[in-house]
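Notes on consecutive records. When two proteins share a document, each keeps its own sequence and its own token line. Never mix them. Below: protein one.
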Amino acid sequence: MRFSLQDVKKSVQRRGGSLGVTLHFLRAGELHDEISRLIAYHERLLGQPQRAFAMDEARAYVGEYRMANCLLATLSHWYNWRQREWNTVVSELGGNEELLQLASSTQLRLALYSYVNELHHGFLRAQQRDQILAEFASRYAVSAQDLDYLLVLDSEGEALLTREAASPPTAQDIATLYNQWAFEAALFNASSVHFVIDYMAFSRAESAQTSPLTPVAGIGAVIKRLCFLARRLGVYYDLEYEQAPESSLSGQTMSPLLNLTLYGPQEVTGAPQQYGLRLARLCRFLLGYGQNTTRKKPQLASGIVEAEARIHFLQRAYTFAMDARVLQLLPAVSEPQQGLAAVDPSLLFDSSIEQHFSEAFFSLARNHGVDGWQLEREQEPLLLDKGIFLPDFALSRGKRRIYFEILGFWTPAYRERKVQKLHYLRGRKDLVLAIPLEAKEAFSSIVADFPVVYYQSQLSVMDVLQVLQQQYDDFAERLAHLALPEIHQQVQELGFVPESQCYALLNCYRRSELQQAATRVCAHGTSDITFVAGLGMYHVRWLEQIQQHFQHWLEQKAGGRTVWSEALHELRRLDPALQTCEDATLETLVGQWSRISVQRASIFEVTVELLSPSGELIAPPELVEPAEVEQEPRKVVRERRSPAKKRTAASSEIVQGDLWG
């Protein structure tokens, strides 16, 4: 059970008009004896019920109640209170099978209530209690004292103290975990964590861990690295850079500084536990990035010029400085990608909307339904005048590359930051925005500067493709740059190009584009090249050769007829280009020949038949007329109708009298 920030011992200072907070971390050797006595107290009570644990006695070992409560919570990482199993306790007490079937103290209390209600009208006098409980306990073959224990077995006071680990922790283990939990408790209540990074020092620290021949990475590589770490751990972030003065006091040139802001639970969702853990882990990793842990002297990690968090408690905001002393007291943290190597980074998303959009896009792409666009997740950042903008996706097709940003509706501060960054991107023609309908007013100041897709709940891939088609349709340019002589020569050499391959050959992405481009190719030069929708582009000489071979093969069949499966096998054997074609494509091919017909008696019975030059079947199937069978004349059954009743002329008219008279 973790402790909260209010439980941590701390001190508050006022620095230049703002409040700063310093948490009390345990240094090496601090409270060593007190923690050891606390561990010994837990070890002595192993297997004892919780009612035997004296909280005041445990606090007395430490002295300071805040620190004592935090250390007791830290010890819960190794020691827990566990309820005993019903069946185990009943077996130890010698209870009968009927008692075992009750399965819990709740059922036993209910049985006792029913027993007293039936025999004693729901009330027992004090003088009768021991006698009645003994009678009730005898039904289950246990004593009255054991019955009292079973009735409260599920209470917290009867839970037994257990240790999860094989051996007890050391005092240093407790102190180290306390420091980690205190650090994380602060970040659970953080709205942001700010790092100032010297990217050259940061890059050199990273390259020191690799081969000496590896060149030092530039600012772009460092930015991508920071973005990757934040996305890997699922932390929302913002990255900006500022140009430092050209020279320092010593005359040396200063490198640009990166400002990395990690947004905390207070800023993103307000739910601290899970998100706060990820944020704390990333901060610990950045603070320890590239540091040699064997050094005794504490120092801030290479490249981190400044690190501080803005935390909130008791309705006030405080600055929490994360310096080298804090870093030394925290446990080492492993590389975030360790243990996650099998996970594709492109599958990590900031929201479910992005994930659903990516899954739907790739599903359409498998069926060639995305107009040739390719979706990328880990794309390069866009450098602004005073910041960095990392779009959610990049869409590329040919030489064109479009960035795609899905705007959310998180908090007012989030929307303000997004709008501010998008103002810096005005004038770019390669950015498309997706805006939720409920945030239409919030982003109204930028909708005139970018192509926009509005969505409700989920983002439609087709809506995005429609906007891309309207804004970035370059078919006229692609059509004008078709190399018609080269295409003619290639089709003449191959003989046949399936329709699926014609898209790449004619530089087309849509079916309507393919039809127009093919018409232009066929109209160029001689008319010996033809395009058929559903089939592809072919040379007339190739079509004649395939028809001759197939017709000759069909003539050898009985009656010039064969089943469709055999015809498909023969067609794919005639030309390698036909081997990858679908059945519908081959049926379109057969439909080009006037002397061959595909007959369908049903969806399961399909035959290919050879026609005579006049267009009739060579051997039409014989029709057997069914023999006439004399049948007995059926008896005509007429519907019986009930006779209509005649109304008598003397029927009196019923008139309702005056009910109020």
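Protein two starts on the next line and is unrelated to protein one.
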Amino acid sequence: MSASTELGKIPVREAHAPGARVLHPLRRASQLLTLALLVVIPASGMFRIDLAQGGVRMFDYLIWFSDVFIVMGFWVFIASLLVMMYSLVGAVFCGWMCPQNTVSEWANRVTERLLGRQARMMRLDGEKLRVATRRRSWTNYLVLGVALLAAAMLYALIPLFYFYPPQAIWAFVTFQHDPRLVGSLHWIYFVVVVLMLINIAAIRHLACKYMCIYRVWQHSFKTRDTLHIAYDASRADHCAHCHYCVDACFLEIDPRKTEVFDSCVNCGECVVACDQLHSRSKKLEGPGLLRMAIGDEGGKRARGALGSFFGRAKTATLAALVGGAMFVFGVLDFQPAGMTVYRSDSWQGGQVLDYTINLAHKVNRPVDMRVRIEGLDAAHYALSTASVHFSGLGRRNVNLHLDPNMPRGLYRFKIVVEASDGWHDASELRHYAGGKEAERGTAKG
């Protein structure tokens, strides 16, 4: 008898898998880290929408929406990475990072602690709110209301960081005057707080199951090979009269009967619950019956699933490379300033004599710009200023006035702008001067 045959007769007992013990703490850490990043990213200046300047601030740089290669390249790259993530791990974003899910789970825990485990604000079966007898006190109701209101007020502050710097938000919170804040901002904030309070108090995970369009978009990239909850049906007798995993699911689905398109967000709470039950039980042997898997039920197609993923992700991979290349090219070709020349809306004697030179600085550092005119005699034009100083980001206008007594003819001239940091630009204009005879003809008409 061979050694392999003898080894095969040795009974093997599958021990408790300790991985599920760290699954829940890791998910909580991921949720808290996501909330922190949602505040830190705009507060640090890494990304902030600047409506006054008409662009997006990324650190000390202002990206205009007309910077096509940077804007389009960035979003194509990010969208392609998200598509690749959805194709491999499915709705992990919802279960591990989504702020809506995070605050809904927190609200459920607070409600259960104050009003009992059966106290659910909105039930699909139409059953009324059931509060535990021992928890029926105005103190618990008051504490719950204050907690939910505080969460709504904090959540409503997060979007402000994407439009205002932290100093302006502090002035908003402390009711101080700040010229950067719009006058109706407190009313807007009040409306957002009310909507968030309704969401946190009543809607919660109903938004995830029936209202989230983002979740529907994620489902467009799911297949049977995508990360999902796998159930060991060979040991189904372990859960003949057990619904511990169902009770642990905050989306109220049965993890033992998951489908390709369902409400599962791959949070892993059911895996943790089943694993903990088996580890504490003296009768049940082996690990839990649930696990997170890629491929078919037995995990034998894991390599095939990865192959299928890379096969389906060819287009997304190519798009990510193209988006990354566009972004890099846009960064290398980035212009730290811009110049635009406008004709005046007013007409003097049937001719345009005034032009507006709009100068924009897109880098948050001091710079000096000089404006000069080439191709015209100095006596034939006047600049409101020939030097402009920028202390940071901003726009300035320089007015150019042409002499109405210029000799008749067509003039070609350039408006040249040079900055102290080396940037320069020029705009060529054509101006027809009618001379004094044109003015007399206009007066007779």
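For the record: Confidence is low (pLDDT under 50) at residues 11-16, 440-445.
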